[in-house]
Amino acid sequence: MGSISFGGIGSGIDVNSIIDAIVGAEATPKQAAFARRESDIQLTLSGLGNLRSALSEVRSNLFALTLPSAFNNKTASLSTQDFISVNGGTSAQPGKYDIEVESLAQGSELTSQIFTGGGSTTFAAGTLTFSANGKTFDVVVEATDTLEDIQAKINDDESNFGVTASVLNNVSDGVDTGSLLKLTSNETGTGNDLVVTNDNAALDALSTNLNLDEAASSASIKVDGYQSVGDSNEFKDIIEGVTITAGVVNDPGETTTLTIKQDTESVKSKVTALVAAFNNLISTIQGLSSTDENAPGPLVGDATVRSVESQLRNALTTPVSGVSSDFNSLTSLGITTARDGSLNFSTTRLDKAIDESYSSFEELFTADDGIANRLIDIVDSFAGTTGVIAQREESLNGQIDRINDEREQLALRIESLTIRLQKQFGAMDALVAQYNNTSSFLATQLANLPGFSSGKSSKDD
């Protein structure tokens, strides 16, 4: 607990105010200096953080242009969506392909005879085995199972590979009226018909005596007049990297045109995003280094800012060695530097580079000395985990730690000074009080002496 001071009681002097004034004169200038220094450092840290953020945005857009896959994407389009659908195409060679759907793949369909007892007809106990395309599953039939029960058992069997059972009621073949069992298999392809067998001849009506109403068949398409047949409606890699799914059969001789071309729009969008990110960086740098007296930038005159801008500008304008065409720099793509340091972008010039020399255009960005890798190296040297900005932030945070240490040391000195002053003024106060008491005592004693008077002498009467 701190001591309680009643300074000035003996002397009548406001000792506490004097102590506060002395302590304030010692502490206030230093505390203000600490606050100014810390404010300046925090302002610099904030500016460096903004610079790092803008550089990181540039880096993310640059990284997208270092990957060869960014330049190898293709787009696939159809003249009509009515007959086929396509997926993939990123690894296909550009070109046009005429595709005709001759037939679709389908599974087999089996039906039983008509049971005049309807859906409640029962059969003998036994096991039905369903097979197609090398797949199989069994259904155990109880003697009490009705036709509808057997339908449910087939559909609910966990091993069912794709057989759907349905009971058709109130149907007639011209002679009998009742219910029948219909089985549909999703195993497509010629020769992959559904086969049902049993272990009890009493179940022949639900197995070996079924009618094959629809045989399983294969799909057939033609690509540029060349036929391809498959067990399913999906055709993979007839055109490398493309999956064609047949949906509707064309009229004879009718085709759908599949066009595969280089996805230049995605590349252009990446270059456009890079230019926008770079211009945002330049705008950030201008704000950070502004010399406006009313709103000076937090990094005005900062060497790091000047170095970032200078190195990036040089990297942007320096041609890339080894590129075998005239498109060997950003300038050759129509990306030029304006007076304020931002980039101007001509899509016409970029389109020309893409159309005339796409491989060189790709190399300009993806080569080891390419624009993207070159700029990433510069950005990382400043904004990386061990870059210039990180080192400066570590140093500035160290300065804040030292300021806090100095604050603690000042607080200890002020506490010591306060205690010392309280003791000194306390001693003075006690001494003055003693002098006052002595003076009062002497005055009282003198006043009591015979013939002593504090008034005028008799000669004045």
UniProtKB/TrEMBL annotation:
Domain Flagellar hook-associated protein 2 N-terminal: 11-107
Compartments, record wording: Secreted; Bacterial flagellum
Superkingdom of source: Bacteria
Biological process (GO), any one: bacterial-type flagellum-dependent cell motility
Keywords assigned: Bacterial flagellum, Cell projection, Cilium, Coiled coil, Flagellum, Secreted
Any one annotated GO CC term: bacterial-type flagellum hook
The name this protein goes by in its record: Flagellar hook-associated protein 2
Function: Required for morphogenesis and for the elongation of the flagellar filament by facilitating polymerization of the flagellin monomers at the tip of growing filament. Forms a capping structure, which prevents flagellin subunits (transported through the central channel of the flagellum) from leaking out without polymerization at the distal end.
UniProt xrefs under Pfam families: Flagellin_IN, FliD_C, FliD_N
Subunit details: Homopentamer.
Coiled coil: 393-420
Keyword Lyase listed: no
Keyword Coiled coil found: yes
First-listed, main subcellular location of the protein, grouped into a coarse class: secreted
InterPro entries with a match to the protein in the record: Flagellin_hook_IN_motif, FliD, FliD_C, FliD_N
Similarity field: Belongs to the FliD family.
Ranges for domain Flagellar hook-associated protein 2 C-terminal: 216-437
